[in-house]
Amino acid sequence: MAWILTLRNKTACTVFLLMFISGCSWVPFWEKPSEPSFADLSGIEKKLYDEFHRWQGTPYLHGGNSSEGIDCSGFVIKIYRKLFGILLPRDTIQQAAMGISVSKDRLRAGDLLFFSQYSQKINHVGIYLKDGRFIHASTSK
Asked: How far is Cα 70 from Cα 103, in angstroms, rounded to an integer?
């Protein structure tokens, strides 16, 4: 995942600050983030990385629910149903209401991360992997 930060873009600065405060890392756009060695991953982490590779390159489509186009909550629904057998509601706010909040130092692979990209209200969800990394359906990559 690459984050490009410009001080002229208030939204980008807000997102960067939220990511920095939450302990997630960012990589300059010219560097490709390296994935952990497959041997260093737990069973669930391996399954999540497999899903990441399966969905990588799928276009973002608001309301989308397939390999033709998918949004963040649809992406989470698909993975949670497949890997955990858990049926989740369709939108991020309803998904967030189902869980409990944990501190960032207690995050485990498979935990859902809810945040705001463009407002004060939760409007995005991703799945935590390991070491500050997460997967999600993105409008950019």
From this structure: 28
